[in-house]
């Protein structure tokens, strides 16, 4: 009987002690739950603000670059969704670290604290990369719209400028995050050299015809005059104009613009006695 009484007393004391611990721990538990709820609400609010800011920046870029509006206006860009997710989880981790500290989970709290301390560095690196994406796209559109080149050359030059700015931003952002960028720098140098070489080759190939016409036109000015009648290949007519790169003649069918280098490739006949 005494053993039963001792066992009952021990069990009652254990339950009373457990109940007292729960009562003592309850404020910390409620505070942690409150922090998590507040953190979740604030994270959603800041994510919505980041997404809205990304839409505003996207619209501003569209106006500056004069690009056509998207098929679905008001759609959040991919980089905006990424920024919103980063902001959301950064806030959630911050409040989760606070909650674990309040609950006294020191091991987990210490690990989360290291993550939270690293978050600003990570966020700055990501923002640098996102800024590089925005600036590179805007610069590409400006180059395509304003460069005094043929359309294909403008597009190529715009792409090269975009890649250069984007790679630079990625290297700077990765270095800010703490990633060893030596390999990235070497890779960027190789890519940049390849792109610049391709650009130089494209420009030289595109300018070859222009230069040939320009040189030939200078020579033609010493051989022909406006008003003379010529025959070259299947064309016959009176010279109306000698432009810097072409010869414009009036034929029976109408006006024809002949590239100046055409006179170096085909025999031309000056028809005497038919001058205007």
TrEMBL record:
Instruction: Describe its membrane topology.
Output: Multi-pass membrane protein
Regions that span the bilayer = 25-46, 82-103, 115-135, 156-174, 180-203
Q: Which GO terms describe its cellular component?
A: plasma membrane
Which UniProt key words apply to this protein?
Answer: Cell inner membrane, Cell membrane, Ion channel, Ion transport, Membrane, Transmembrane, Transmembrane helix, Transport
Q: Does the keyword Cytoplasm apply?
A: no
Localization, UniProt: Cell inner membrane
Output the Gene Ontology terms for molecular function.
mechanosensitive monoatomic ion channel activity
Phosphoprotein as UniProt keyword: no
Described purpose of this protein according to its UniProt entry: Mechanosensitive channel that participates in the regulation of osmotic pressure changes within the cell, opening in response to stretch forces in the membrane lipid bilayer, without the need for other proteins. Contributes to normal resistance to hypoosmotic shock. Forms an ion channel of 1.0 nanosiemens conductance with a slight preference for anions.
Oligomeric and partner information: Homoheptamer.
> Which family does the record assign?
Belongs to the MscS (TC 1.A.23) family.
- The protein's name: Small-conductance mechanosensitive channel
What is the organism of origin for this protein?
A: Sulfurifustis variabilis
Tell me the classification of the organism that encodes this protein: Bacteria, Pseudomonadati, Pseudomonadota, Gammaproteobacteria, Acidiferrobacterales
């Amino acid at each position: 009987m005494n053993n039963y009484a001792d066992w009952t007393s021990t069990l009652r004391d254990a339950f009373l002690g457990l109940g007292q611990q729960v009562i003592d721990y309850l404020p910390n538990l409620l505070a942690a739950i409150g922090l998590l709820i507040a953190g979740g609400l604030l994270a959603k609010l800041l994510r919505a603000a980041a997404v809205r800011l990304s839409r505003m920046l996207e619209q501003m870029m569209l106006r500056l670059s004069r690009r056509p509006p998207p098929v679905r206006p008001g759609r959040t860009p991919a980089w905006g969704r990424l920024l919103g997710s980063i902001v959301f989880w950064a806030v959630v981790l911050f409040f989760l670290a606070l909650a674990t500290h309040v609950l006294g989970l020191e091991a987990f709290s210490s690990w989360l604290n290291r993550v939270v301390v690293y978050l600003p560095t990570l966020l700055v690196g990501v923002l640098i990369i996102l800024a590089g994406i925005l600036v590179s796209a805007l610069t590409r559109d400006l180059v395509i719209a304003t460069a005094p080149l043929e359309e294909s050359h403008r597009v190529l030059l715009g792409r090269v400028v975009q890649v250069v700015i984007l790679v630079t931003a990625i290297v700077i952002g990765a270095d800010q995050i703490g990633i060893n960028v030596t390999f990235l720098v070497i890779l960027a140098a190789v890519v940049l050299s390849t792109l610049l070489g391709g650009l130089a080759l494209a420009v030289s190939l595109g300018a070859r015809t222009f230069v040939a016409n320009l040189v030939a036109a200078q020579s033609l000015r010493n051989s022909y005059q406006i008003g003379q009648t010529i025959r070259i290949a299947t064309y016959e007519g009176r010279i109306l104009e000698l432009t810097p790169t072409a010869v414009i003649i009036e034929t029976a069918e109408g006006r024809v613009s002949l590239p100046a280098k055409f006179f170096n490739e085909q025999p031309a006949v000056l028809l005497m006695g038919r001058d205007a």
